[in-house]
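quick one before i forget lol
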Amino acid sequence: MDKKDCLFEIADQQQGYFTSLQAKNCGYYDGHFPRYIKSGEWIHIKRGIYRLAHYPLSDRPDLVEWSLWSRNKQGENEGVWSHETALDLYDLCDIMPAKLHLTVPKHFRRSNLPPHLKLYFADLKKSDWSQKQGYRITTPIRTLWDLAQTQQISNEHLECAIHEAKKTGLITQQEINNLPSSIAKTVFKDFYEKN
């Protein structure tokens, strides 16, 4: 596979976006990056992040861009969209979050945090999130659990979101029953069924 096909294959999984490390792994030399930008083949998004210029834009390019921003030194994305952002993406409530909510591992460190990004620190298990095209998002039950713990939305909005998630099949009764009883019996009280 030539380097152009290699890069397209990676970018296609990330809504047209790629990192400088990914381009280098495909055989591109970082000294030649300005040439691809000048020719209009690539668009420089932010430090170390690019997009194929002719790749169709998605509805939420910010989700991919900031996921790539959260990558570690090995080039792996560490951020998972969560809390109000995940709630909005699942369309479970009429809340429009003022910031993007991203959960990162406890060891995650970045300076100059953008003002529109709110970070949460937790070591999520693989079962706590799912992979979308170019980003990760907490599962619906984990999203509701996080919101119940942080109490950053009203109980009324949370109950509405739980009801909608259950009605649309995004969460199951078993998932609710498997929550620690202290949370399940308080926040999820109208939905909790003791086994």
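fyi The chain has two domains: 3-52, 61-186.
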